[in-house]
UniProtKB/TrEMBL annotation:
<keyword id="KW-0805">Transcription regulation</keyword>
<dbReference type="Pfam" id="PF00486">
    <property type="entry name" value="Trans_reg_C"/>
</dbReference>
<feature type="domain" description="Response regulatory">
    <location>
        <begin position="3"/>
        <end position="117"/>
    </location>
</feature>
<dbReference type="GO" id="GO:0000976">
    <property type="term" value="F:transcription cis-regulatory region binding"/>
</dbReference>
<feature type="DNA-binding region" description="OmpR/PhoB-type">
    <location>
        <begin position="128"/>
        <end position="228"/>
    </location>
</feature>
<keyword id="KW-0238">DNA-binding</keyword>
<dbReference type="InterPro" id="IPR001789">
    <property type="entry name" value="Sig_transdc_resp-reg_receiver"/>
</dbReference>
<feature type="modified residue" description="4-aspartylphosphate">
    <location>
        <position position="52"/>
    </location>
</feature>
<dbReference type="GO" id="GO:0006355">
    <property type="term" value="P:regulation of DNA-templated transcription"/>
</dbReference>
<dbReference type="InterPro" id="IPR036388">
    <property type="entry name" value="WH-like_DNA-bd_sf"/>
</dbReference>
<dbReference type="GO" id="GO:0032993">
    <property type="term" value="C:protein-DNA complex"/>
</dbReference>
<keyword id="KW-0597">Phosphoprotein</keyword>
<dbReference type="GO" id="GO:0000156">
    <property type="term" value="F:phosphorelay response regulator activity"/>
</dbReference>
<feature type="domain" description="OmpR/PhoB-type">
    <location>
        <begin position="128"/>
        <end position="228"/>
    </location>
</feature>
<dbReference type="InterPro" id="IPR001867">
    <property type="entry name" value="OmpR/PhoB-type_DNA-bd"/>
</dbReference>
<dbReference type="GO" id="GO:0005829">
    <property type="term" value="C:cytosol"/>
</dbReference>
<dbReference type="Pfam" id="PF00072">
    <property type="entry name" value="Response_reg"/>
</dbReference>
Length: 236
């Protein structure tokens, strides 16, 4: 059963969309503001996000931008009362997959949603299963790491951290984001960003020999970035 997240603050529209999606066989999650919507999207990883732009607490553009920083391929269908070309273009530039202006036909919305969910499912089947950089080969499906063709023992969290940084290679990832995504906690629960630093240090120690430049670089006062070495190869 496909999962849809609807982020909409207009109560009547939200209830109507929820009813129609459930009638079509979808599992439906709902949020009434941008902050709650982003949190649910990151935690639940729905097959589609139906996102209003004019939202309280955090507008839809901000939600879309922050969502795309962490999930590049999650399908997002933007709905809005604003029918200006600049607004439509801004939505697409931030990573929207489709755009509908209010008022819209529910039948058309459901048809577009069905297409986006199907496209997202086919993309998910083609996700990277192996990533090779230098003399290191990371096999995501069996959760194995080889260096010079020899197995390297990584802890569960070390592997998850390496995987997350590779998936977001080229982007600076904050320590706070890593705590939330890998450990599922924040500093308020007593787990500090030093935990992230320790695990990064372990990865460098276990995999870094032979590299002229570190593949995980520290960004001062922010976090870490996986810098893709020349010749790196990803395979579906």
């Amino acid at each position: 059963m496909a999962k849809v997240l609807i982020v909409e603050d207009e109560e009547g529209l939200l209830e109507g969309l929820e009813h129609n999606f459930k009638f079509e066989g979808y599992e439906v999650l709902t949020a009434r503001n941008g902050h709650e919507g982003l949190k649910l999207a990151l935690k639940q990883e729905p097959d589609l996000v139906v996102l209003d732009i004019m939202l309280p607490e955090k507008d839809g553009y901000t939600v879309l931008k922050e969502l795309r920083q962490r999930h590049r391929s999650m399908p997002v269908l933007v709905i809005t009362a604003r029918n200006f070309e600049a607004d439509v273009l801004k939505g697409f530039e931030l990573g929207a997959d489709d755009y509908l202006t209010k008022p819209f036909s529910v039948k058309e919305l459901l048809a577009r949603a069905k297409r986006l969910v199907a496209h997202g499912a086919s993309s998910a089947r083609a996700v990277m299963t192996t990533y090779t950089f230098g003399d290191v080969e990371v096999r995501f499906e069996p959760r194995e790491v080889l260096k010079t063709d020899k197995a390297v023992a990584l802890s569960y969290k070390e592997f998850e951290l390496l995987k997350y940084l590779i998936e977001h290679r080229g982007r600076t990832v904050s320590r706070e984001e890593l705590l939330e995504e890998i450990w599922g906690v924040d500093e308020d629960l007593g787990v500090t960003t030093r935990t992230v630093d320790t695990h990064v240090s372990n990865l460098r120690s276990k995999l870094g020999a032979g590299f002229e430049q570190p593949f995980i670089v520290a960004v001062h006062k922010v976090g870490y970035k996986f810098v893709e070495p020349a010749g790196a190869v990803s395979r579906p």
